[in-house]
Amino acid sequence: MAQAGKIHSPPKGRQKESADQNLKIIGTRMKRKEDPRFLTGNGRFIDDVSLPHMAHAAALRSPHAHARIRSIDKKAAEALPGVLAVITGEEAALETGPLPCFANPPVEQRCIALGKVRHVGEPVVLVVAETRYIAEDAAALVKVEYDILPAISDMLDALNSSGDAVLHPSRGPSNIAEHRKYTFGAVDEEFANAAHIVKRRLRWARSGGQPIETCGAVANFDEGSGKFTIYANTSMYNYIGFTIAASLNVESHQLNIIPMDAGGSFGSKLFLHKVPVLAATAARIVGRPVKYVEDRVDNMMACDNHGSDRIYDAELAIDSSNHMTALRYRVIDDYGAYLQYGLGTHGNGFSQTVGPYRIRAVGAEIIAVLTNKCQQGACRGFGSEVTNFMIERMVDAAVSELKLDPVQFRYDNFIQPEEFPYQIPTGNLYDSGNYPGALKMALGMLDYQGWRRKQQEARAEGRYIGIGLASCQEKGVFSATEFWMLNREKGFALTSSPESVSIKIDTNGKAVISLHAPHWGNSPETVATMVLAEQLTLDPKDIAITYSDTDHGLPGTGPGGSRYTVMVTGAVAGAARILKEKLKRVAGHMLETSPHDLEFSNGRVSIKGIPGSGKTIAEVAMQSHMFRLSFPDDDLTSGLDANYTYDHPLATLPKSESDFGIFYPIMGHMCHMPVVEVDPKTGQVKILDYVAVHDCGTMINPMTVDGHVRGGTAQGIGTALYEEFQYDPNGQLRNASFYDYLMPRVAEMPDKIRIGHIITPSPYTEYGVKGAGEGGRMVAPPALAAAIEDALRPFNVKIDTLPATPARIRTLVRAAENQRG
Amino acid sequence: MKERDIQVTVNGRNAKKRIEARMLLSDFIRHELGLTGTHVGCENGVCGACTILVDGTAVRSCCTLAVQTEGCHIETIESLGRVNKLSPLQQAFWEKHGLQCGFCTPGMLMIMTELLRQNPNPDRAQIRERLNDNLCRCTGYEDIISSVERAVELMRAERGVQ
User: Fold this and answer.
1) Structural domains in chain B, sorted by start
2) Fewer Cβ atoms within 10 A, N terminus or C terminus of chain A?
3) How far apart are CA A116 and CA A95, in angstroms?
């Protein structure tokens, strides 16, 4: 059992670059390295790939949520001129196996449905043709007969379904995929001793990343070598790419994945498997390169990456001095038709399940159900955004029921700045933080008292203004244990989540950094450039970035879980240390001085304390590459290059089912305070002001951090107010287009999101960097729910369901008015 | 399938092709002419990533047939500046972090090119109004607004010099 509280003998860590040094480039708002190519139309996205003799694939989607495939008549489709192959599930399965799955026991998923369809939009047939137009024409000519099976659309129905309504009978006679209970600390005792217990049922609807670019792949199979080459906009190809090779029944060295620029991901391209496997399966069958790019409907119905979909029954225990002591919840999570990441999204939530508060005990009952919907994947927050929503709604419920002040209650319950590193009841560690400081900054920036006055004045005019407040965590840098620690049988219990770079300084002193994970909208080129420029005092213009494929890839886990900046910074700093040592050694020979007397300044290897002395890095590089015989005949080798693999900065193994060890310790924090006006007659919510204070430790580039904060907050606004995949009782997805699935446009955004930063550097990462990619979406939903609830306080409504659409708000107001009579 | 001859001017160059009558303008631009800077996001005219200028007017190329543009002057993102000589609008997007993944960016640049030709001094409300035509999933829009405001400044300075 993990005892919550300050850790008095903290783990040492491996930090080599402290946060408190004078930095010249890190911390500046350098313009992004990535941008000029995107600004001129020179990005290289998956649909831009064109190979000689390339064919095109289109999927015939299942129109039914749950059905047996009785027969497929493909004669008319095959007869269409230009059609190369019409591939059924049975035909695909002759050579291609199940898709990767991290649940244990696994839930079998095929790239083309085999025997049965389990959600609307699932591929039933893949048509390959000379053009996409012909492929789509042919798909429309395929006649499929189905035997309809009962569709499970409501997660509560999934709890009791049986017989033909069971999606995966081979995994047992139920649609409950997992049912686990966890106890961290003395939960029952804390509840027995509580002065107050607050209870709520909370509902978080399914939404998704929905990047503007869909998922795609271009695959080629080389008969001679038996090797696949797949261009794709996936990540994790240098981490678990071998599982795609396994699906394709080739050896891992017979698959090369070439990363393309990803047009946004937000988690949804974390690890694509179905799309690359579809393209590769087709390429092997037709003997030509095949492109398969999802259209928008494919993506919305079958991207395998819908977000969490949960009902919480939560209870919060509070003692007589208004301190929260324990949290207990039962959560049902609708995972859809498959379970690719197991219960990973709940393992993730356990990293910060007490939020920023001194809650001593947590009890969790998790029921994962399978329904006839697109399966869940990763969506900015990976489940912890829902944990945040639950915690903050419970905090607000307590404040409301006990008639307390939301600000003071938080101050009274925060983990204090001097208590770090802090262990939470699940065993995870929070490395650093200043939660009261963030709240204080947010209150000041917002002019909280001023808005409270305006709120009162507006009420007198019959207007409903509300002020929201949410204080939430942004867990950063996952350890791989979270993928499997909730599996009943652990399965493949991997523990690595490294990130690598390869750096070459060429003959002329120019540097090339190879990254081993893709660009998907974050700023990896900018970050890597800035860190190397800082380390070697190089001009950022003299640094170029490339992305390695799997053939040349070193261990790389890629962006996700607010980890990439931390990890790539560690990798670049590590590689730079190797390069610096060699540069000093070569320069030492050139200058006939000890390497210990040398330092780096302004692109030179110079004598310590004498800027402008010594040699330029370009001069040393030229010697290093071209003039080996100028140096002693020892172990010095030609060239200047370094590979470095940076492992997780601080992780331990799970100890037991009640102590998961340290698995997500680089802890960011956010305090958001939106002000909204709600029109109770229409249910419309207008954001009048928005303050966002974030702590992501040392910022490599504050400009890109702010970009993430704004973009993440925009997605959080969408999650809070608009976005929801709406399945009808038959499992039909009613809003599978951008017309119907509403995402924020600029009109839905406040004029400005006013950003503040509190900086508590991590003592465990290089330079003290923390993650920042997910925070906005992880805090805006509870902050807005609180604001709407505050605005509608005269109606005494509870915002316990998101998204708070105008219709939902109207329903609440109407019920309140009817009750009042 | 019926085929048609089409002749258009694309970024100042003459293009002549025989294509299927049903070919979308976005596919014509991207796959027949190889101008892959124009992107396709939603395929039904909502997101605006595919926006290009046809005779100076912004159109959704994913919802337009190529043959509808017979004889027209088409401008795509490739007509703006180059990597080493960005246009003021591109430069402003770079300075103000108006893009993250870069996928919606070509459409954003084209609608704003149209706006700035119609109105070289748009105020914030006018920028927001036009920006509302397109979707961006990365930026939350604010940095795009700042970028366009910066472009107005840069273009004003440029005109001052001339």
Assistant:
1) 3-79 (3.10.20.30), 88-161 (1.10.150.120)
2) C
3) 19
